[in-house]
Write a structure and sequence with these properties.
The protein has about 300 residues and is an alpha/beta fold. It has helices at about 5-15, 35-45, 55-65, 105-110, 135-145, 185-190, 205-215, 235-250, 265-270, 280-290, and strands at about 25-30, 50-55, 75-80, 115-120, 150, 195-200, 220, 255. The longest helix has 16 residues, at about 235-250.
């Protein structure tokens, strides 16, 4: 089955390129949670050609109303919800208070164009492997309908399983052990046409991430959140990037901001990276994601 909605998305996206800022490089943000209310303004100012917005159904509805004619965003649906509540604030019910969305509902949302990616997929917050049987219907659906999937792998909130965690939500079942990229291998072997992005580039498990990339050509990674000193000191971030690039995977690293208040800082961190040359920076900021999403190369041309 052909990719749902990607061709129309590309047409709308390319139609707005002339108005892009001249001084900034083109960017695709493959991992963000920015709200619709400020999102379009931020994207215009920073020359973000497209953003994969990971969120719940209500947030995607606001994006659809605001950006209906501009095709600035790719709507991704976030699940599972620990205890049936939003993973960020721990209060908002999702999917009728269920942890997983109804698979028939999700199929309709995809085929009718309201959802174009499964992102952010969060089994780590339940402490389960991505190969857990509860996950299987969703991997199968993404492969069947040929839409991209993006899974959280690696860092959660610091001390996520403890009451002392600084974030509002509590996640007592969060397990770093469930964030090992190699846990994805059986999923990928069962679904060899699945397009998968590993969010946060599987940090801090560089060796496992390299092994997965080596063995599975449909796997990409994103840099979401790693530019933030709240997660990784800048020098360590650059060493991690260098490890991915020096091992031959510079064409499969994509920019992700993750934190809505740090989009510009995340872009600048790539532009300032001493471990990347100019072509690698352009690939990470835009070109690699355009290839992952099967958008035309013109998407990333400078205005």
């Amino acid at each position: 089955m052909k990719s749902t909605g990607i061709t129309l998305l590309a047409m709308g996206l390319l139609g707005g390129l002339a108005a892009a800022p001249q001084s900034r490089p083109p960017v695709i943000d493959i991992h963000t949670h920015m709200a619709a209310e400020r999102g379009v303004e931020i994207m215009d100012r920073l020359n973000i050609r497209l953003a994969l917005v990971a969120g719940g159904a209500s947030g995607l509805e606001r994006w659809a109303k605001l950006d209906a004619m501009r095709s600035h965003y790719l709507p991704g649906i976030t699940f599972p919800c620990p205890g049936g509540l939003d993973v960020i604030n721990g209060r908002t019910p999702c999917y009728g208070g269920q942890e997983f969305p109804d698979i028939d509902w999700l199929r309709r949302e995809i085929t009718e164009g309201r959802v174009k990616a499964l992102a952010e997929i969060l089994p780590e917050f339940l402490g389960i492997s991505p190969a857990d049987p509860r996950m299987e219907p969703y991997w199968a659906l993404a492969e069947e309908l040929d839409i991209p999937a993006a899974i959280h792998m690696g860092p959660g909130p610091p001390g996520a399983a403890y009451d002392s965690s600084p974030v509002p939500a509590r996640h007592p079942n969060f397990r770093m052990a469930a964030g090992d990229p190699m846990l994805l291998e059986e999923v990928l072997l069962r679904h060899k046409r699945l397009r998968l992005s590993v969010m946060h580039a599987g940090w801090p498990r560089l060796e496992s991430m390299l092994a997965l990339l080596y063995a599975h050509p449909n796997v990409y990674v994103d840099t979401g959140g790693l530019h933030s000193d709240r997660i990784v000191p800048r020098a360590a971030y650059y060493r991690y990037l260098q490890g991915l690039v020096e091992n031959g995977f510079g064409k499969r690293v994509m920019f992700g901001s993750d934190f809505p208040d740090q989009i510009e800082a995340g872009i600048q961190a790539i532009l300032d990276a001493p471990v990347l040359d100019a072509d690698q920076k352009a690939d990470i900021l835009c070109g690699n994601a355009a290839r992952f999403l099967r958008l035309p190369p013109e998407t990333c041309q400078s205005s």
